[in-house]
Design brief:
Blueprint (H helix, E strand, L loop, with lengths): L5 H15 L9 H25 L12 H11 L8 H21 L3 H18 L7 H10 L1 H6 L6 H21 L21 H10 L8 H20 L5 H4 L13 H11 L3 E5 L5 E6 H7 L13 E2 L4 E2 L4 H10 L4 E5 L5 E6 H9 L20
Parallel strand pairs: 4-5
Antiparallel strand pairs: 1-2, 2-3, 5-6
Length: 380
């Protein structure tokens, strides 16, 4: 086996180093961007306003402590993290504040006090099972701002630290309920069906052994395993089938210049919920659905399809495994998926009715499904 040259080894090492600094893969979730940005901003306004209304005298500019921003990002941005749950939020912040004040009171050197405050806070949080990273900043505040110790002393842990945390806790529970998420995170007994192969204690032991128990909860780990099992079952059930195998209905495509009146009539004639929109070369440019027509209102009968269609719709390659379509149609809220070739040209529209049809002719069981012809008869 040839030994790589030092130059080649260096290039590989630099390439791996560069890859480590790349952002996570996947598209930007604009919904999460708006939800987290708006939620953290509102939490700061709420906590700051309540502290100001309480009449607490301002201490060295710390009406609203800086680590609150980091806590807000955890609670609002990653509510499933064990680090963001109520116990570490309250106990981790409150205990670290006490450790920081005591270190500032008892140690003459600021540098030594800062080191002891941070190290002691981390030790306390680990012992109390209340690890909360922003609390490290809370522990340093009394050392870096002596006015806190002079004016508030140990009361600093109660106001504003724990009071901020309580406001953030209540805000997080309300905010995530309004935005369709779960906070505090699920407990193991709440997702027992998702862990049929493992008990909660087994899952906890696995997370502990892999040193992931601070990053993911037992119940969410069970949900991940259940989702993986569903993918495996879908793979076994649809083994060898592509999206094109299931799309046996022929739905007439539209062009961006097709009048809306004609598009409505085509939907009625084909009993279709949505139709693909293609350009002159057959490339997919959009999808026109019944929802698009309803949003336009009953008075808008003229104009072209291009004015109402959904641009850049979710699509799949015609050769993609059928399980990918199952996932998109089940979770993405779509009733039909355009299928394209390697050049982006429309091949067919795969609808929920197509999937229901292929499943209806092979109910139950775990054996692979068979492709169906356009006439609806299983091919040999």
């Amino acid at each position: 086996m040839p030994i790589p040259s030092p130059r080649l080894s260096l290039q590989r090492g630099l390439r791996r180093l560069a890859e480590a600094f790349r952002p996570p893969s996947g598209p930007l979730d604009l919904g999460a961007l708006v939800r987290v940005s708006l939620g953290t901003a509102l939490s700061v306004l709420l906590a700051g306003g309540l502290i100001a209304a309480s009449g607490l005298p301002e201490v060295a500019g710390f009406m609203l402590i800086a680590p609150f921003g980091a806590s807000a990002l955890l609670v609002v941005g990653v509510p499933n993290s064990p680090l963001a749950q109520p116990w570490p939020l309250l106990v981790g912040n409150g205990g670290s504040a006490l450790v920081g004040v005591l270190a500032a009171m008892w140690l003459p050197s600021d540098l030594l006090a800062a080191a002891v405050a941070l190290g002691g806070a981390v030790a306390f949080m680990h012992a109390a099972r209340a690890l909360h990273p922003p609390a490290g900043g809370v522990a340093l505040l009394p050392v870096l701002s002596p006015d806190i110790v002079t004016d508030l002393g140990l009361r600093f842990a109660l106001m504003p630290v724990i009071s901020d945390a309580l406001v953030l806790l209540v805000f997080g529970m309300v905010w995530h309920r309004l935005t369709g998420r779960v906070y505090p995170f699920r407990q193991p007994h709440e997702t027992a069906p998702a862990a049929q192969r493992f008990s909660p204690s087994d899952l906890a032991a696995i997370l502990s052994r892999l040193r992931l128990d601070s990053n993911i909860g037992v119940a969410d780990f069970a949900r991940l395993l259940a989702a993986a099992d569903e993918v495996a079952r879908a793979d076994a059930r649809t083994e060898g089938l592509t999206c094109a195998d299931a799309a046996h209905r022929s739905l007439p495509p539209l062009s961006p210049d097709t009048p809306l009146v004609e598009a409505r009539q085509r939907m009625l004639d084909s009993r279709a919920y949505s139709l693909a929109v293609i350009d002159g070369a057959g490339h997919l440019v959009g999808v026109l659905s019944q929802s698009d027509l309803l949003r336009a209102g009953p008075d808008r009968h003229d104009g072209p399809v291009g004015a109402l269609m959904t641009c850049r719709p979710v699509s799949l390659p015609a050769r993609a495994p059928l399980r990918k379509a199952l996932s998109v149609l089940a979770e993405g809220g779509w009733r039909a998926i355009p299928l394209t070739d390697d050049e982006g040209r429309l091949v067919a529209m795969l609808t929920r009715a197509d999937l229901i049809d292929i499943l209806a002719h092979h109910p139950g069981g775990t054996s692979p499904l068979q492709p169906r012809s356009a006439s609806g008869i299983a091919e040999p």
